[in-house]
Amino acid sequence: MDKYDSLKLENQLCFPLYAVSKEIIRRYKPFLDELDLTYTQYITMMVIWEAKCINVRDLGHRLYLDSGTLTPVLKKLEKKGYIARCRSTEDERSLNIYITEEGEALRDQALIIPQKMGGCISISQADFEAMYRTLYQMLDNFSEENEAEA
Amino acid sequence: MDKYDSLKLENQLCFPLYAVSKEIIRRYKPFLDELDLTYTQYITMMVIWEAKCINVRDLGHRLYLDSGTLTPVLKKLEKKGYIARCRSTEDERSLNIYITEEGEALRDQALIIPQKMGGCISISQADFEAMYRTLYQMLDNFSEENEAEA
DNA sequence: CAAAATTAAATTGTACGCAAGTAAATTGCG
DNA sequence: CGCAATTTACTTGCGTACAATTTAATTTTG
User: Which fold has domain B31-119?
Assistant: First the structure.
């Protein structure tokens, strides 16, 4: 028992979270490279594939990213032809993101990504589910806090 | 059941890992700001506080960071006076990092960080322990893979 | 022993990630 | 209505992250 125990790397929860997150993303890279997508672009496309149309604010809430991060990502995805960006007619402040035909086509190609990544995470189904549940519980708490402070 | 289920954000484990990791780090920021440390500098100092002396390679292994990230971080910590950087006399390729007296003094000030962060992660002790165990299991697997490919 | 291979850290280039500030549109309040 | 407050996205600046390359030192090998 040491005065400084609370400052040991091994006693943090945040550090393994941070490290595992990065290591997984690093393992996505070779597969994503084949589609010329970054991880951030990939999860952004996931939301747009599902929604068909979504504005930047809602996209940011889903992804826990702000417009400072999303604006350049979305401009790149537009440049690649996967999405269209246009101002809402009802509210000119809001920017709507639409999926394009090329974006839809990419979705089929992207199906190989989860397939190839499958073997990468070697934990049991039970551990997976327990972790998933705890993580979303934490995210929900954070969302509430974020709402409260706003 | 949808052909594209595997591409839904909510079916990924990586996304909540990535989001929770960032949200926690964001909550560290106000506390770390008071010590003029970033999160990366903070976890780097954690390892150096424990080791007293460590080279960049070993530091990188502990933190899952490469010299491309660590070199600028370590130069900043040196500039702030918390560490000293000097080449090993046995092996001139290797750079040893030493804690300074100011660095040791910072350690006492940093004790408030884990204390203040305590309330930030609102999950049960059991969930904490289960997640901790699973995360380190994954990190160990990744380490093995990283060894193997090298 | 000398050339080749390996290792360690630094450098370069690209892409986030976020706080803070800006500009334009909209809402709300007196 | 008209102005202040709010909201939305964009921009700027700083600090990571990481792949790929470079440079120097060390080790391995023929």
Answer: Arc Repressor Mutant, subunit A (1.10.10)
Reading the block at residue B39, the tokens are 């999160």
- pLDDT in the model for residue A150: 53
CA distance, residue B91 to nearest chain A CA (Å): 27
**Percent of chain B with pLDDT strictly greater than 70:** 97
Per-domain boundaries in chain A: 31-119, 121-150
All residues of chain B having their beta carbon less than 8 Å from the beta carbon of residue A23 are: 64, 138-139, 142
- B59 within 8 A of B66, measured Cβ to Cβ: no
Residue A136 to residue B25, Cβ atoms within 8 A: no
Give me the mean pLDDT over the B26-54 stretch: 97
The amino acid that residue B46 corresponds to is M
pTM of the model: 0.94
Cβ atoms of A39 and A29 closer than 8 Å = yes
Per-residue pLDDT at A148: 67
Share of chain A above pLDDT 70, in %: 97
- Kindly determine whether the C-beta of residue A93 is less than 7 Å away from any atom of nucleic acid strand C: yes
* Interchain CB distance below 8 Å, A135 and B20: yes
The answer to whether the C-beta of A77 is closer than 7 A to strand D is no
* pLDDT single digits (tens) A117-137: 988 888 999 999 999 999 999
Q: What is the pLDDT of residue B149?
A: 63
